[in-house]
Design a protein that fits this description.
- The chain has 371 residues and is mostly helical.
- Helix content is 75%, strand content 0%.
- The chain is built from 15 helices and no strands.
- The protein has helices at residues 7-22, 25-49, 57-67, 79-113, 126-140, 149-169, 177-201, 205-214, 228-243, 245-251, 255-260, 265-287, 293-305, 309-333, 342-370.
- 42% of the residues are buried.
């Protein structure tokens, strides 16, 4: 039996958080969004320009405007450059923006739902579950759902892994950071072992090699025909999460406080788990598991716009898009002509950030214990 919750005190606490977030001011939020939007345009331009064949940024915009019918001047570029920009790099850059934005908002929502700053699809084993579901479809050749069979299987794997990690980590109605991470690592290890077993025992050697490279995360090989599904998943996820931003804010005060404020926590959390697993599964099916984007970006943008999810979600989406585009640019040029899997670079950035978060939380726990 839980102790009664003071509704007046709870409401005051929630209002206090909202007032604290308002100190950043709408002007500061607007400036942040404008700056990130400009950075996104610049990043996308550089993503189209940089590669084994360098295309001047001005020429990139000329190719784009000409393709859109907004420029009727005589092209001063070759057909090969136009093909590189429009058919090879443009889908890749757009997938990077979509995947980065999607992973950032999923990480933001998970951290609120579980009330844990370390929550993130990759660390919680959700990406591993999605990868296993996708690999099962590839290896076994399952096409029950037609062209979206890969995404459906990845969604099922992501949802199953998330529910399993959550059930394993929750003891006595509480989830600690250590238990959550350990559960995620353990379940991800098991799922990854099963995935590798499938790849080793399959008779499709060429597919196994391709899938193994895909499991490291990458944006190569995407085409215009496959972009619609991750883009639709991103729009669906951001739309629903923005509509539920108030409920996500209520969870910041704790489950009992959120219940007092009228939120059915169990039902809301279950629905959000399904949504986040759907978005994660579709993104993993499109570009493989890319880790730590959903861990880093929410923490970084909260420093600029506060903790209100009406501010954090759109800011994290833009920041995640910018970050993953530049990670992909680095993956293409750092070891050129060899391409590094973008998931390797995000892990190199996210690993130290994860350790810093662990040390920060440990210091805070020590300070609270001492006081």
């Amino acid at each position: 039996m839980t102790a009664p919750v003071d509704e007046t005190g709870t409401e005051q606490a929630v209002r206090g958080r909202q007032q604290s977030d308002r100190r950043t001011g709408p002007a500061n939020l607007a400036v942040t969004l404008v700056v990130l939007t400009v950075l996104l345009v610049v990043s996308a331009t550089m993503g189209l320009a940089i590669g084994s064949v360098q295309v001047p940024p001005g020429q990139v915009w000329g190719i784009l405007t000409h393709a859109l019918g907004a420029d009727w001047s005589t092209p001063d570029w070759s057909g090969a450059r136009e093909t590189i920009v429009l058919d090879i790099r443009a889908p890749r850059v757009l997938l990077g923006a979509v995947a980065g934005a999607g992973l950032a908002v999923v990480g933001t929502a998970l951290q609120a739902l579980i009330r844990n700053p370390l929550a993130e699809p990759y660390l919680l084993g959700v990406s591993s579950g999605a990868s296993l579901g996708a690999v099962v479809v590839i290896v076994l050749g399952v096409t029950w759902f037609g062209p979206v069979s890969l995404s459906v299987a990845a969604f099922a794997g992501a949802l199953g892994a998330l529910l399993l990690v959550y059930a394993t980590a929750r003891t006595g109605g509480r989830i600690t950071s250590t238990r959550l991470v350990l559960s995620g690592v353990a379940i991800a290890a098991v799922l990854t072992a099963v995935l590798h077993l499938l790849l080793l025992t399959t008779d499709r050697g060429n597919e196994a090699r391709a899938v193994l490279a895909w499991t490291l995360g990458g944006l190569g090989g995407v085409s215009w025909s496959t972009l619609w599904l991750p883009s639709a998943a991103l729009l669906l996820g951001i739309g629903i999460l923005m509509a539920q931003a108030r409920n996500l804010n209520l969870l910041l005060a704790g489950e009992e406080a959120a219940t007092t404020m009228g939120l059915d926590v169990a039902r809301f959390r279950a629905r959000m788990f399904v949504l986040l697993s759907l978005v994660t599964g579709i993104l993993v099916a499109a570009c493989g598991p890319i880790g730590f984007v959903g861990l880093m970006l929410p923490h970084i943008v909260r420093l600029a716009v506060g903790g209100d999810h009406r501010r954090v979600l759109p800011t994290a989406a833009l920041g995640g898009a910018v970050f993953l585009i530049w990670a992909d640019i680095a993956a293409r040029v750092v070891a050129a002509p060899t391409e590094i899997p973008v998931g390797v670079l995000t892990a190199l950035c996210g690993g130290p950030f994860f350790l810093w978060l662990m040390r920060r939380d440990a210091r805070r726990a020590t300070d609270r214990g001492g006081s």
